[in-house]
């Protein structure tokens, strides 16, 4: 579980990131969760965009992605979700 200070730090890091995944009409599926897990292992911090044609609520999408990828939701802003997961091999981010 992330503290408030850690979430603030991650939000500042994620500010300049571009979304690398998009959740569309089909919603969250196993293949997407697997790819997000791999991306989190490489990058530790990613941004996911939710398209307007997505039928699911953004909080539901964030919950499914974080549970499936075993990641923490650092932020939900607008239609973007910021996910963080500490990498085992490629550690880049030092949390305060």
From TrEMBL:
Q: Where is the CRM domain?
A: 1-96
| Pfam families linked | CRS1_YhbY
Its recorded name reads RNA-binding protein
Q: What organism does the UniProt record list as the source?
A: Virgibacillus subterraneus
List the lineage, top down. Answer: Bacteria, Bacillati, Bacillota, Bacilli, Bacillales
Assigned keywords, A-Z: RNA-binding
Matching entries from PANTHER family are given as: RNA-BINDING PROTEIN YHBY
